[in-house]
Write a structure and sequence with these properties.
476 residues
Length: 476
């Protein structure tokens, strides 16, 4: 069965299952949908959302998961604004349904998005929230591995190597437990990078080689090329330029064959750096010109200005200062453009993050207001019920008093009738009748109270039905 059909089958199972069983199927959906082509992802996500939206009245929790799935899909395309819109809606629905699994998934993706947008403080806050919820759930080991991987990479960028090592190990163990080679390889890359930055090159080499073996075993071209490049970087640091060159060439061949353009440019840049270190100016010039052409074709400015900087170094090494200055000026110009673009992007990203967090705060305020209103309604209802019971009780006592007076008035008549039948006057009979009247007053009072309360409840129900009918709302 094709992966798309498996995803659709799982989503159909979710449509049919009780809400409490969503966790039996949704983890597999989030796992499999990662590897589908863009159009198939959108097809699966949109179809499920359409169904969930049509059944939202009776299946509100499934609509929340459908909203999250769309957010996840757009996150994989790096469409951050659309992703955050869906995730914000999903989180609100999960809060309304008190679904901690869904809240954990949302926090994980919010954190991943904020990390990509460069806000590490908010990213860590959301990622740790997601980590705790997903860990407690135990149903989403791959999502937990992704969450731990994001935390670890932030720690790595902030040079918190011990914390990074700990979280990469968690990502490795969770992905291994789930049989997920994807995050298993990324965790191994992370562990290797930490060891490399700590100058523990032998440990780093073991991690990178293990990642490469895993990528090749799973026939993942992207991960194989990535692992070769990571291993090449290690050899470059160790000044083993022969191995670094060979691995970069292998990774480059794979990336060009499968049109991984951005990665191919990276390998060209690394090869240029290797040749410059060895003062092989001609070889460096050739690979960097190829890299420049490819980078300009895709208009990836950060890679373009890196190439110009290296070209400047080559011409400086060849004592061609005019060309060296020319490329250095191009490097400076492009770098300034990138910095300006980054600044504009960061402003836009900050606005996205602010809007998402503002919506979260508004949802919290609305939730608290609803809880306060519900609390006040309960208190009001309790007060109304107490007043109703008091009113009914008073009315019942008044009616009981009337009944008691009537019975005492009639007792002489009843005694006279009884004594006419009996042979003589009987004191004890008179006493018995009076006691019977007295002891019957309590059950009579309770019966009247019950009748009056029943009548009040019936009247309220009729009033609610009348109001619902006028508003066009079906009565419960």
């Amino acid at each position: 069965m094709a992966e798309k059909e498996k995803v659709k089958q799982l989503l159909n199972e979710i449509k049919l299952c009780p809400a409490i069983e969503i966790g039996n199927y949704f983890p597999a959906v989030t796992d499999l949908i990662r590897f589908l082509p863009k159009d198939e992802k959108i097809e699966c996500g949109s179809d499920f959302y359409q169904w969930a939206d049509n059944h939202a009245e009776h299946e509100p929790l499934k609509l929340a998961y459908a909203e999250f799935l769309l957010g996840m899909i757009h996150f994989t395309f790096e469409e951050h604004e659309i992703a955050l819109q869906h995730l914000t809606k999903a989180r609100k629905k999960f809060e309304e349904q008190n679904d901690n699994d869904g809240l954990g998934l949302c926090a994980m993706l919010f954190g991943g998005t904020y990390r990509t947008l460069g806000n590490f403080e908010l990213a860590l806050k959301m990622l740790w929230e997601g980590f705790e919820l997903l860990k407690r759930s135990g149903k989403y080991p791959i999502s937990l591995a992704a969450d731990a991987n994001s935390i670890a990479n932030i720690d790595l960028e902030m040079h918190n190597y011990d914390e990074a090592l700990s979280m990469f190990n968690i990502a490795f163990e969770e992905s291994k437990k789930a049989g997920d080679y994807y995050f298993n390889i990324y965790a191994l890359h992370g562990l290797g990078k930490v060891k490399m930055l700590q100058h523990k090159y032998q440990d780093a080499q073991e991690y990178f080689e293990k990642a490469l073996g895993l990528a090749e075993a799973n026939k993942s071209t992207m991960h194989t090329a990535n692992s070769m490049t990571e291993l090449a970087n290690l050899y470059f640091r160790m000044e083993n330029f022969t191995e670094a060159e060979a691995l970069n060439k292998q990774a480059l061949a794979l990336r060009e064959e499968h049109h991984f353009t951005g990665g191919a440019v990276t390998n060209y840049i690394h090869l240029g750096g290797i040749y410059i270190k060895q003062s092989k100016w001609e070889e460096a010039l050739q690979v960097l010109k190829k890299g420049l052409a490819l980078a300009e074709q895709t208009n990836v400015k950060p890679k373009i200005y890196q190439v110009h900087l290296l070209l400047s170094e080559i011409y400086e090494g060849e004592k061609d200062f005019e060309k060296s200055l020319h490329h250095f000026k191009l490097y400076q110009k492009l770098r300034e453009e990138v910095e300006q673009e980054d600044y504009a992007r960061k402003l836009a990203d900050a606005k996205l993050i602010f809007e998402a967090e503002q919506t979260k705060k508004e949802n919290i305020i609305i939730k608290k207001q609803k809880e306060e209103i519900q609390k006040k309604n309960i208190e009001l209802q309790e007060t109304i019920d107490e007043l109703t019971i008091t009113k009914v009780s008073r009315k019942a006592k008044a009616v009981t008093l009337v009944v008691a007076i009537v019975l005492f008035i009639l007792q002489d008549f009843m005694l006279g009738f009884a004594l006419d039948i009996l042979p003589s006057d009987n004191y004890f009979l008179s006493l018995g009748v009076k006691m019977a009247i007295i002891f019957s007053l309590s059950p009579i009072n309770r019966a009247i109270e019950h009748y009056l309360l029943k009548k009040v409840v019936k009247n309220r129900k009729q009033q609610r039905e009348a109001v619902s009918y006028e508003k066009g709302i079906p009565s419960a």
